[in-house]
């Protein structure tokens, strides 16, 4: 069988090893890569591909029966075209460099994100920040950890007391929708953040640094790891309309659970 839940600890350990290997490539390239532009304000470097190559080789070398969905070869496809077929083998869903613009400008807020998705549901999530040497990890039913120690979402009960995060697409026209929500939430929240890395934002919800996160324009490689991480840390993940979480949809609402309904209302009633 290509997926065996009893092997979750093995899959989780492998994802952590792969994340460290990919991050080592990023750090070796930092400061010497050649930047090119594939869309306005959407910078990418040769380091992306080099990191993904290492991660892919490691994971498929360990688990050749699995699938691989990487950001680099999937860029430009409709999101549904990146969804593995129902009933197919488990898929590693990987962003080899989340927070590319930060990386390009040497802002220390980027990471390698690796999720394992089975029949549309993330079951393993690893997010590794090489600059802070922080390894966020989780697997279904096994809890969530930060550098090996258990982590959990915050206990903040209201948006008024919360630090809320979001993400914006690179396309300006598509940013306008979220700017309206930003305005509405900023009138209520203690503070808002746009850290430039969706994966890290979700990891921060999982460990209690952020209390909530919303977005209209994510991709599966941005959120697959974070979804299982937040859930295992005690938080709540839905679509923006309150539906079941789906990493292969663009929209998501991710919180500590306590302020989930309130944040959802703010987004919809702006």
Automatic annotation (TrEMBL):
Q: Which Pfam families match?
A: Inositol_P
Q: Which PROSITE patterns match?
A: IMP_1, IMP_2
Q: Does the keyword Protein transport apply?
A: no
Question: Which GO terms fall under biological process for this protein?
Answer: inositol metabolic process; phosphatidylinositol phosphate biosynthetic process; signal transduction
Query: Its Gene Ontology molecular function terms?
Result: inositol monophosphate 1-phosphatase activity; metal ion binding
Q: Give the superkingdom in one word.
A: Bacteria
* Statement: the UniProt record of this protein carries the keyword Hydrolase: yes
Alphabetical list of InterPro entries matching this protein: IMPase, Inositol_monoP_metal-BS, Inositol_monophosphatase-like, Inositol_monophosphatase_CS
SUPFAM superfamilies linked to this entry? Carbohydrate phosphatase
Residues recorded as binding Mg(2+), renumbered to this chain, are 71, 95, 97-98, 222
This protein's cofactor list reads: Mg(2+)
Which keywords are on file for this protein? Answer: Hydrolase, Magnesium, Metal-binding
EC identifiers of the protein: 3.1.3.25
The reaction(s) catalysed by this protein are: a myo-inositol phosphate + H2O = myo-inositol + phosphate
Q: What's the family?
A: Belongs to the inositol monophosphatase superfamily.
Which protein is depicted? Inositol-1-monophosphatase
Q: Give the originating organism.
A: Urbifossiella limnaea
Which lineage do the record's taxonomy fields give for this organism? Bacteria, Pseudomonadati, Planctomycetota, Planctomycetia, Gemmatales
